[in-house]
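Blinded run. Sample ID left blank on purpose so nobody reads anything into the name before looking at the predicted structure. Input follows.
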Amino acid sequence: MKAIIAAGGRATRMRPITHTINKHLIPLANRPMIWYAIEKIVDAGIRDILINVNPGEVELQKSIGDGSRWGSRIRYVEQAGGPCGLAHIISNAEPLIGDEPFLFYLGDNIVLGSIKNLVDAFYEEKADAMLALSKVPDPNRFGVPVIENGRIIKVIEKPEKPPSPFAVTGMYVYSPRIFEAAKSIRPSERGELEISDAHTWLIEHGGHVGFREVTGWWKDTGKPSDLLVGNALLLDLLTKEDSVQAGDIHADATVSGRVRIGKGTRIGANTILRGPVVIGENCTIESSYIGPFTSIGDNADIRNTEIEHSLIMNNVRIQARTRIVDAIIGMSAQVRSAGSSLPSGHKLIIGDHTVVEL
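Blinded prediction complete.
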């Protein structure tokens, strides 16, 4: 079985972060988000992976490579014709999939449990499609199944009045019949070939569309707040064995709980680290408190600041003399105290789609 990972799109809801980084490379617990998708696929026994990318994409290829890191083969497929919906991604990859079943995985999905049971269920039921479902508080954001007598009879994309509390998550297993379905549907009102319509087409034409409910935690990282939740859940998986402290820790610093510190990082005096926390390489942290569920990228410089439940990327400089919580701070950003220069006051350079609380 092969797999397709969808890693295209523009991620407009993630701006301004995604103005400078592909959404699927945003680091969660200091590792690119898409790496977790690859690991789940490989753990399910699939080693031949295609990644759907935007035309001209190069950063994903640099980060992921040929798949040898995971003992797999990874190839890249440019999304011909631009973003036209998930069913279009499937059609685009058909020449490389051939007449075989495959797993389709949206690269911005984070799931803590195994997906092998989804693959096993596909074979056991001899299905044309096997969908992973999850109960969510806001199913109107997703494709929603209509279920009668334990069977899916229809899938509706982003309904105003959801017929069930389930969302179709971004993990699917298909037979080659999905290619016929993708070619037979018409674009929706938003101009996309909806994967929900392809599922409904299969059902209406005698196909078997099964489902399994996701066991464990699942999140699609469609909004900035979802990134913080995903970061926290992945940090919570840190074990004592993961808590390697390769940096230089001052005798007057306090490190408690599960904390991982990268090479070349210096933890100065009067600093408290309280895990789960991950700190990258070549950082300097002095006279600061870094609290639970915080990840800090490489080459960060943090002084005289408290940070908790936040995602801090590479090359960030923070000297704020205040407390920062629930924050996402992008690469090479600077956060300084309002009193660090004259005239006093809040001096801001704010790009499109930025959120600031003062």
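Unblinding after everyone has recorded impressions. The two ends are 52 Å apart (CA to CA).
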